[in-house]
Amino acid sequence: MSSKRDRRGFLKNGAALATGLTVGAVRPASAQTPAASTPSKDIKELIAYGERSRFETAVRVSVGGRPSPDSFGLTFHVLAPLQDSFGIITPSSLFYTATHRGAFVPDINPREHRLMIHGMVDRPLTFSLDDLKRLPYVSRIHFVECLGNRANANHKTVQETHGLTSCAEWTGVPLSLLLKEAGVQNAASWIVAEGAEEVKGASSIPLAKAMDDCLVCYGQNGEMLRPQQGYPLRLMVPGFEGIYQIKYLRRIKVVDRYYMTYDDYGHINPDPKVAALTHQIGPKSVITFPSGGQQLPERGFYEISGLAWSGAGAIRKVEVSTDGGQTWKDAELRSPAYPMAHTRFGFHWNWDGRESVLMSRCTDELGTVQPTRADVAKFWNESPERSRVRGADNSVQPWKIASDGSVRNGLA
Amino acid sequence: MASRRLLLVVMVVLGLCQIGTAQSPTYGVGRAPTAEEIRAWDISISPTGKELPPGRGTAKEGAQLYVQKGCAGCHGRTGWGGRAPVLISSKISKDGPPVPANGMAGMAHEPPPCLAPCVNDANAMAIHSPFATVIWDYINRGMPIGKEGTLTPNEVYALTAFILYKNEVIKEGDVLDELSLPKVKMPNAAGFALPPEEWKHGRPRLQNYP
Is residue A257 in a domain? Predict the structure, then answer.
């Protein structure tokens, strides 16, 4: 397969050069061994570009049932190790990765990469990366979350229940600036954003959102984006589900209707209520310590730690329950609460050695409160056992502490 | 033409890509793409089909291409039971059980990957997609894996016709072209709610959702 792909990369480059526009050559994504198993580097190399201690072993793992790369060589969904996370920034090397259709991680030469803005604009424009870096930029901290981030009873760890979200500092040009430069026409109402990878993944985004707070990013956590995160250019659509955050961004077409791209198609639903719950992430939180698969060595003091985020804005409040939701107490925010960003919370807890169920729930700046599964069932008028969470799953996650200190998924 | 191409290559290599004049009015950055560049890159297909290129194809032609272009190798001879998602509902397919696909030994035993969302008989694209244009667009941009973007418009029309015919959406003799494709009556035409176009900052996703 790889020879085919190399050939294709060659063909594509040839064609692209002929038009003076080019996307990068492509390469199968096979070289993705976890950092822990790569041969240790020369000290000179490590001084040039650092690596974590060999005693640190947290790695991403693929979503059950479909290894990544899979048998086609496609990178599929891989989960971030939230149980090992501190603070609110996910290191780029541990940032979760997903593509609606599995994709080969492209090997794009940034000097050849272009972003074209066209469609219902007065002045179609093409930008090189150097062009974009000349323009006014901002750095903002935002989470990204995949719609597939749904906890179920089979999941053992918080990596499995919630690992399809991560948070980073993104640097780039506001999309509104670029759209204003191009001159959006009055009748326009949507944009279609498209990547340069082989499948050219694309999503339709309401123009109102595009003009509000989207960013055309080249920076992530203080350096250039990583290839798995869209190197050299990615769209950030804060608070919207992951599929909108187009990687390898090469084209924005301004249009007057919803286009239903293949990626849009994957998430259609006949119920307008479900559709409304699908595109933006609701207020959501999860306890990352103690969480499934961990072990409390003895009774006594533990600082409960977790993450809260919302697609609608900043987190205002997080509450924690240690008795399965009967009583709730305010947790403390341990990081700045940025809009559409992971926010770290902490809660003092003295474990008395008895069985306990830990939960967290958050409230965002609109006053929307994260629901329990029982709340969700009530909304849909269903019995809690038979109910499903529709749209983006932002329901409360319970962790059960057994009297021996072992921690298990409370949904099981 | 050849010398123009050479010149472009040289300019790309030197990183001097200011071909058009800088157009961005406030910052004077970027350049205007030529009409030809836009045409080459614009592969978006609206549900109205307005960007569809001229061309035509039938299910009969598509049946041959389905094998020739390697689709059968991944999706199964019968359009189901392969390693790649179901293209032809096994409930509708009259071709019997899946034949182990050629050149991919052992593949028929591997369960098809469950994508998010899972593709099965009930939501095979021909049955689930509200617009035939979505199928055309996806085959055109994304298939066959490893040789994306190599199919001609006629081939994409024919493969789309084959998949639609096998799922009993159109008749075997129907010709699909840039005018007829967007008009195909899809079984799930009403099966989606528009995402909120009137998105507003600071508005809850759904009023009264807990």
Answer: yes
A105 in any annotated domain: no
From the candidates A70, A131, A246, A340, which should be mutated to test the interface with B, based on the most B CB atoms within 10 A? A131
Tokens 């229940």 locate to A161
Q: Are residues A361 and A317 in the same domain?
A: yes
Which 3-state string (H, E, C) describes B68-132? HCCHHHHHCCCCCCCCCCCCCCCCCCCCCCCCCCCCCCCHHHCCCCCCCCCCCHHHCHHHHCCCH
Q: How far apart are CA B173 and CA B175, in angstroms?
A: 6
The verdict on A347 and A215 lying in the same domain is no
Range of the domain at A262: 114-268
Identity of the residue in A12, A111, A261 whose CB atom sits nearest the CB atom of B15: A111
Tell me how many domains chain A contains. Answer: 2
Same domain for A299 and A238: no
Q: Residue type at B206?
A: L
Based on the fold, state whether residues A363 and A251 are members of the same structural domain.
no
Say which CATH number the domain at A217 has. 3.90.420.10
Same domain, residue pair A121 and A246: yes
Instruction: Name the nearest CA neighbour of A277 among B146, B202, B207.
Output: B207
- Chain A contacts in chain B segment 86-115 (CB below 8 A): 110, 113-115
User: What is chain B's Cα-based Rg?
Assistant: 22
Name the B residues in 63-82 with CB < 8 Å from any A CB.
74
Q: Distance (Å) from the C-alpha of residue A406 to the closest C-alpha of chain B?
A: 32
Residue A266 contacts B, CB cutoff 8 Å: yes
Of A5, A250, A251, the CB nearest to B146: A5
**Per-residue pLDDT for chain A (412 aa), expressed as one digit of tens each?**
333 333 233 233 333 333 333 333 334 444 444 445 555 678 888 899 999 999 999 999 988 767 778 777 777 789 999 999 999 999 999 999 987 666 788 999 999 999 999 999 999 999 999 999 999 999 999 999 999 999 999 999 999 999 999 999 999 999 999 999 999 999 999 999 999 998 999 999 999 999 999 999 999 999 999 999 999 999 999 999 999 999 999 999 999 999 999 999 988 999 999 999 999 999 999 999 999 999 999 999 999 999 999 999 999 999 999 999 999 999 999 999 999 999 999 999 999 999 999 999 999 999 999 999 999 999 999 998 888 899 999 999 999 999 999 999 999 9
Q: Where are the domains of chain B?
A: 53-96+110-187
Q: Which of A268, A293, A310 is the last residue of a domain?
A: A268
pTM (two decimals) = 0.88
Do A123 and A251 have their domain in common? yes
CATH architecture of structural domain B53-96+110-187: Orthogonal Bundle (1.10)
Yes or no, beta carbons of A371 and B134 under 8 Å apart:
no
Contacts with B, A 305-364, CB within 8 Å = 311-313
Give per-residue burial for A185-214: e unless 16+ CB within 10 Å, then b.
eeebbbbbbbbbbbbbbbbbbbbebbbbbb
